[in-house]
Amino acid sequence: MWGTWFGGNSAQRRKDAPKKAILDLRQQLDMLQKRERHLENQMANEDKKAKENVTSNKTAARAALKRKKQHEHSLEQTSGQISMLEQQIYSIESANINQETLAAMKNAGAAMKTIHGKMTMEDVDVTMEQLREQHELTQEIGNAITSMPITEPIDEDELEADLAALEQEKLDEQILTTGTTVPVSDSLSRMPAAADGPLKGKSNAQAVEEDDEEEELRKLQAEMAM
Fold it and tell me: Rounded to whole angstroms, how far apart are CA atoms 54 and 195?
C-alpha cells in the first residue's frame, strides 16, 4: 500500500511504457489506414464523375478533378504519416527487445557469479590435480590387481620330488600286493634284459652264470623296495 502511494509501482510503469506506446501507435496507425482507404475511394469517385461530365459538363468535370487533387494531396500526407508511425513502432519494438535482452544478460551474469561464488582458478587447478592423482592411483591399482598372481608360484623341483615319491609308493604297493618285482630293466637305467636263450659265442656255463647274476639283482631290487 505504501509503495502504491509513494510511487512504488513506478518501476512497473516504466516496464509497461514501451508496450503502451506501441499500443497507442498501432491505434493511430489503424485510423490512418482507414483514412487512406477512404481517400482512395473518394479519388476514384471524383475521377469517375470527371469522366462522365468531360464532354457534357466541363465545369462539373473540372470541379471533380479539383476535388480529386485535394484528396490526392491528403492521401500523400496520410501515407507519409503511416510510414512515420510504422517506423516509430519498429524502433520502439527494437529498443524494447534490446532492453529485455540486456536485462536477461545481466540476470545471467548475476546467476553465474552466484554459482561461482568464491571459486577461483587456483581452486580449479587444485581440484584438477587431485583428480589426476586419483586417476593415476586407480590405474596403478588396476595394473597391480591384474598383474599380481593370486597364489604363490609352484616350485617345479618340489613337484618333481612329489611325483617321484608317488611313483615309489605305487611301486611299493605293487610289490606288497602281487609279490612280484619290477623288471630290472625298468629301474636300472634301462639295463637290457637277458636273452631267453644262450647268446651266440657263449657257453652254457656262461649263460647259467648270467642267469644267477640276474636273479641276485632281482633279489637286491626287492630288498631295496622293502
Answer: 161
Contacts of 172 (CB under 8 A, 6+ apart): 225, 226
- Would you list the DSSP string of 96-156? HHHHHHHHHHHHHHHHHHHHHTT--HHHHHHHHHHHHHHHHHHHHHHHHHHHS-SSPPP-H
- Predicted TM-score (pTM) of the model is 0.47
Give the contacts of 183 (CB within 8 A, at least 6 positions apart): 193
The whole-number mean pLDDT for each consecutive block of 10 residues of the chain, a chain of 226 residues, reads 53 80 93 95 92 88 92 95 94 90 92 84 89 91 76 74 82 76 48 48 59 69 60
What is the distance, to the nearest Å, from the Cα of residue 208 to the centroid of all Cα atoms in its chain? Answer: 94
User: What is the SS3 string spanning 155-199?
Assistant: CHHHHHHHHHHHHHHHHHHHHHHHCCCCCHHHHCCCCCCCCCCCC
Cβ–Cβ under 8 Å, residues 171 and 222: no
